[in-house]
Amino acid sequence: MISSVEKYLDTLLSFVPRNKGNRLSGDYISLVHVPAHGAERVYSLTFDDPESLFTVASYKTTLWETAQGGSSAQSRPELDALQTTVPSDHPVFGFLDVRTLEACENASDGSPEGMDYYLMLWQKDGRASVVECYEPYSRESQSWLTVIGGLQALSSQFEYATLES
Hints:
Helix content: 25-40%
Strand content: 25-35%
Number of helices: 5
Mean pLDDT: 84
CATH architecture: 2-Layer Sandwich
Distance between the termini: 44 Å
Radius of gyration: 16 Å
CATH class: Alpha Beta
């Protein structure tokens, strides 16, 4: 039987790019945002030429409540999903370089209660890492703020374009 924690993590990580062998694919960033209040959001960006794939999954209700809500394999969390291609010369790629990604340090000295939490998995140019951070805004971590801001800017740009269509 799958525990609530395993169910929760499996759902959140389902948007991390993978190939058919369930191994991590080429270069990518996946950023999981677990807000202090409200539902989770997962940003994933693959680095491909000439276009990269960008995915945003915004859950309608908190996944933790859904994961604990019963043993039914049929219960799937509701979400809004955006998936689009981004030209590889988009300005955001200038900010999402290996130096910035490596500068995102673990800051796990937070509490699961009442704090924004970010988990980032990335692989780029032969380097990779998994890091987490509670409350990056109050820490004034420039690298975390750059990554979060870049992915949020892409999200808002393409969500707005989708609404206009």
